[in-house]
Amino acid sequence: MAAIRARWITSVILLSVFCHTGLSSYWWFLGTSSVYQSTVDLKTYNFKEKCQQLNYLIQKQKDLCGISHNILAAVSKGAAMGIDECKYQFQTRRWNCTTFNETSVFGGVLNINSREKSYIYAISSGGVEHEITKACAKGDINECGCDDSVRSLPTKDKWEWGGCSQDIRYGEKFSKEFTDSKENSRARDGMMNLHNNEAGRRSIRSTMKIVCKCHGVSGSCSIKVCWRKMSDFRRIGSMLKQRFDGATLVDLNKRRTRLRPKTKGQKQPTKKDLVYLEESPDFCEYDPTIGSLGTRHRECNRTSYGIDGCRLMCCGRGYHTMVEQVTEDCDCKFFWCCEVRCRKCTQMVDKNYCN
Ligand SMILES: *[C@@H]1O[C@H](CO)[C@@H](O)[C@H](O)[C@H]1NC(C)=O
Ligand SMILES: *[C@@H]1O[C@H](CO)[C@@H](O)[C@H](O)[C@H]1NC(C)=O
């Protein structure tokens, strides 16, 4: 009797956990390492079914996941790449793109329609486009491939089109359908999220480049073959970080049809710019409801006047200095051919931490 009862109670608890996560579920959960593992062993015969079981996706996303057996792995990688890039770009800021083991991944920071939220949306929508496009070029997805239409573009006989030009059109469309699907295009915050998702995708389009390879006798480059390629995701992350710094505070216009700069006279943001509706908290103190861990014990730079400097990072609470032992490579020498040998040097360095 007791055992049955215990089982009943566990299932009720499980059920309520399920329902709870269902409410605040986000596809970013796919980017966390434990979930990524599980996407790798999707099989051609069961992926459609498995996609329908991912309760942190909404119905439209489950259906998109079911298009092809390799889609989920690409979306997962895209989400993970977005999360990693966010952490890299924000490592010396008070909010350093903290993530949590819950389905919302970014936690309370999403409760405020701030610049931070705008970056999260843009980088992850870009991440999905980037990875889907790579999967297309590798031939992992039947619905897309390389862009052969470039071959008719003029090259002034200086070089020839060759190789696989990455085709961002499918990835762009997929990312739009997948990441935009949750948003209400008539709500204020929905409009903000849609705008920032689009900004993320535009950053990929605007940084497409042409790369070439030379052929010919002893590097004469008599034949030059070129193809189109996306920029590294690091470049996308840095570009969006600049847009974060220059993001525009917006609000609905009088007719409630679109977003306008809140400050009179400021120019209308372009589709590449990030927009936000609310100012950010200062992230100085611990407050999980806004996704802030506070800056206590964060390392800071004693000589910098920027946001990584102790004055700003520690929010005026001051800092303490500790002497720590650091071991690094030094006196590196190049030996023909091809080896670099270094010595290990240990030195004592001052490190500063916020009070
Ligand atoms: C989050 O989950 C990962 C992998 O499952 C685990 O290694 C890590 O310790 C967890 N972190 C927290 C704070 O629970
Ligand atoms: C981010 O900040 C938190 C606390 O503010 C700290 O515990 C964590 O180590 C930081 N992460 C990185 C990558 O610096």
From TrEMBL:
CDD domains xref list: Wnt_Wnt6
GO terms under cellular component: extracellular space
UniProt-listed Pfam families: wnt (PF00110)
Cell location: Secreted, Extracellular space, Extracellular matrix
Keywords: Developmental protein, Disulfide bond, Extracellular matrix, Lipoprotein, Secreted, Wnt signaling pathway
InterPro entries: Wnt (IPR005817), Wnt6 (IPR009143), Wnt_C (IPR043158), Wnt_CS (IPR018161)
Alphabetized GO MF terms: cytokine activity; frizzled binding
Major location category of this protein: secreted
Record keyword Lipoprotein present: yes
Gene Ontology biological process terms, A to Z: canonical Wnt signaling pathway; cell fate commitment; cell morphogenesis; neuron differentiation
Family: Belongs to the Wnt family.
Protein task: Ligand for members of the frizzled family of seven transmembrane receptors.
Protein's UniProt name: Protein Wnt
Source species taxonomy: Eukaryota, Metazoa, Ecdysozoa, Scalidophora, Priapulida
